[in-house]
Amino acid sequence: xxxxxxxxxxxxxxxxxxxxxxxxxxxxxxxxxxxxxxxxxxxxxxxxxxxxxxxxxxxxxxxxxxxxxxxxxxxxxxxxxxxxxxxxxxxxxxxxxxxxxxxxxxxxxxxxxxxxxxxxxxxxxxxxxxxxxxxxxxxxxxxxxxxxxxxxxxxxxxxxxxxxxxxxxxxxxxxxxxxxxxxxxxxxxxxxxxxxxxxxxxxxxxxxxxxxxxxxxxxxxxxxxx
Length: 226
Known about the structure:
CATH architecture of the largest domain: Roll
Number of domains: 2
Strand content: 25-35%
Strand order of the largest sheet: 3-9-8-7-6
Number of strands: 9
Helix content: 25-40%
Order of helices and strands: EHHEHHEEEHEEEEH
Radius of gyration: 20 Å
CATH class of the largest domain: Alpha Beta
Structural class: alpha/beta
């Protein structure tokens, strides 16, 4: 398993296809024989496992050794390796921190971990969202979104790091099942994309621009749409 300078796996936070546990068991190859392709190994390393296309129908049991790489992920995985090797140690550390933050806080909903990623003197330049009911600023929106959209998920669309600056583009989806700024649950699904820009020093976030606050009007429009 390829590791970055901070000890995290290269696959952490990335969507990776590979052999499922069931497929591995079917061909009677120990799961430890191919640790980088098996479902549970990828998940333990922080990868976002997705099943690939079934392969059993294309295999003839002729006794010969077979090997290969999942065609659905081979190109993207190779590009990720080459990209990681071309980055500086600081950039790899920043990218690893953003991957973990996105997966742990946004994807998995471990909100208490958010503070672990902040550096001393962290400053947010993001424009706070104003509650349409009373005009008060709402700076911590993620807990409110988790309540309003219990099935909230976030997909990392792109992540670019250049020196200390990092930009992440994401897409969130969810179903409106809880009250949100006075709007009763509608059962409607939302799909909203946005970006965060951060300055990252020694793997910690020290400045932030953009974010979900810029997209809250879009969220409310989607849940209120007729």
